[in-house]
Specification:
about 375 residues, mainly alpha, globular, TAF1A, TAF1A polymerase, SL1/TIF-IB_Component
Length: about 375
């Protein structure tokens, strides 16, 4: 029956998605790609099995999700290519993704698309920077080949359009802002550069970001502004409560895969969280940061697979992460349970202390998670 088909399809979809996630977490890219291919083929077959008008297709929530999923996969694939130095392939993938249209365009899809365009703009900036270095090396007066200069201007226009769009959206866009300002400064548009940096530093819609004030300060210094102006630019940065800001920054840093195994970063977070838990002051700081991450950090950072891997490769990393996991997810967290058990079994003193600490302050987890 139709109901039974839909039920089976839903179950198959969920199982396949879990396999994809598991494979990606274990960096089994080939296996993940095979499951993803099967998944997309299944979706296409399911859509073609039912006769629906274009208007009905556009209203299908699954088709909207499918479109969003495609964009997210494209971004992940582009990051993978970039990490392996395959810049041209990454650029082609991002360009191709811009032409995708599947179902009704939603607000979320629109944001994902802007992100894809922004990363393409970043690669255009990279090409522009290479051409700029060639010109500077040879000297514009003595360089007769105008093709380099023309390509440079073409890259500038494409990069500027996409970078400008993404930094309008409230968020932390340090790299994009720096590249856009570099473009503007090179072509002498200092007023626009100043406006962009002021907006990034002082607009209340954007999250607190110490880097924004540093970038503004550095720009003003390059412009030869007075000492009074320079000090004024850093006032907000200096006056901010260092602990709160530090907590925000370290949480944001650990959102990125490149920092997943950075012991210093985890040590910094563990130390700050431990101080807050013991004092029982500012637990709302932790709760605020955790609320936006509790749906995806457990799989991203605290799976049993990662606990085993971290314990085998870096005991110090597993210790710091276990402390954070115990505070955020409680004493029953898979990561904490595995690491603390191994540490105690190996008769390492600090792991026994860690286990006692998390058990003692387990009620804090309940206050953070409610």
């Amino acid at each position: 029956s139709s109901h039974k088909h839909k039920l089976n399809f839903k179950r198959s979809k969920e199982v396949c998605l879990s396999y994809i996630q598991d494979a990606m977490l274990q960096k089994q890219w080939k296996r993940a790609a095979e499951f993803l291919t099967f998944y997309t083929e299944t979706l296409e077959k399911d859509f073609s099995a039912e006769c629906m008008s274009p208007s009905e297709v556009s209203q299908c929530s699954l088709s909207l999700w499918y479109g969003l999923f495609e964009l997210q996969v494209c971004l992940e694939h582009a990051f993978h290519l970039l990490c392996n130095g395959r810049i041209d392939e990454a650029y082609q993938n991002l360009s191709l993704a811009e032409s995708w249209r599947f179902g009704e365009q939603t607000v979320i899809q629109d944001k994902e698309m802007k992100l894809i365009q922004a990363y393409r703009g970043l690669l255009d900036y990279y090409s522009w920077s290479k051409q700029k270095n060639i010109l500077l090396e040879h000297g514009q007066d003595g360089f007769e080949d105008l093709s380099v200069e023309q390509e440079m201007h073409s890259c500038f226009r494409k990069a500027a359009v996409n970078l400008k769009e993404i930094i309008k959206i409230p968020g932390v866009w340090d790299l994009f802002v720096k590249c856009y300002v570099d473009l503007l400064e090179f072509y002498g548009d200092h007023n626009e550069a100043r406006q962009v940096l002021n907006e990034y530093a002082y607009n209340s819609r954007f999250p607190a970001n110490p880097n924004a004030h540093v970038y503004l300060y550095q720009f003003l210094k390059r412009q030869g502004e007075s000492k009074k102006t320079l000090i004024s630019a850093l006032k907000v940065y200096i006056k901010r409560k260092k602990r709160r800001l530090g907590l925000e920054v370290i949480f944001a840093t650990l959102d990125y895969a490149g920092w997943k195994e950075n012991v210093k970063a985890w040590n910094c977070l563990a130390r700050q969280m431990k101080q807050i838990v013991i004092s029982e002051k500012h637990l709302d700081w932790i709760k605020q940061e955790w609320n936006s991450r509790k749906d995806w950090w457990p799989a991203f950072h605290f799976s049993r697979y990662l606990a085993k891997k971290n314990w085998q490769e870096n005991e110090s990393l597993s210790y710091e992460k276990a402390l954070v996991a115990g505070i955020l997810l409680g004493k029953d967290c898979k990561y904490f349970k595995y690491v603390s058990h191994r540490g105690c079994k190996a008769q390492v003193k600090r792991f026994r202390i860690l286990k006692k600490f998390v058990n003692k302050y387990n009620p804090v987890y309940l206050r953070i998670s409610d």
